[in-house]
Amino acid sequence: MAYDVDPRMTEAQPSHEKGGNLTDSEKSLSGSGLFQDLNPDVLRDIESRCRWRRYAKNAQILSRASNSLDVYFIVAGSVRAAIYAGSEREIALANFSAGDYFGEMAAIDGKPHSADVYAMTETVLASLDHKTFIDTLHKYPQVSLRITKHLINTVRTMDVRVRDLSTLTAMQRVYAELLRLAEPSVKPDGTWGIRDMPNHREIAIWAGTTQDTVARAIGHLARDGVVERRRKTLYIKDRFRLRMLAQSVENDSVH
User: Are residues 146 and 86 both part of a single domain?
Assistant: First the structure.
């Protein structure tokens, strides 16, 4: 299957084309968990080897066909890794925010990236070249251990993601996404709900379906009294029923 670049993405722009050069205070990896216990002098040396850039919202950072072996560290902002089924259907794989990093798998195995990455907000990134990254792993075992744990967590997360995409119907995936977003005590009586309910497009991206399916699924839930929408909050009035619907086979098989 071919995956196309999201047409919302724009060509990534260097920082000097997006509001001026980065300040020295912005050029810091102190917020990166990967390097959290390195000697300050070592961290400054790594920072000096980085390339620093600012990306506009929706700017593409990496394409899945890219041969870049750089590792990217998010200093500010947030990015999303996604794949595309056709020219319009985006399937989100992961979101990353300040302190996170990405690109480490390609840096380690030398193969092309497995997803496209774009900026969800204006984002500041530091990129470290392949050789320096690998040298750092060799020199500092604690960094290598964190990378290993991170990769294991990624595999576990993707295993669940692939299982859901391949075994659940589209309606079930929408229900499961609502459960994932829900939190308790949005009302004094402990009612579960979703504050600042995402739009249908955002839910569709995570559920791997269409906006029409999301609208239909939420409509069914509202008519059956399972959920209720008030302003920006979606109240889950019957969480047990929603969980059963997410697991049952009674939903249609639209994908």
Answer: yes
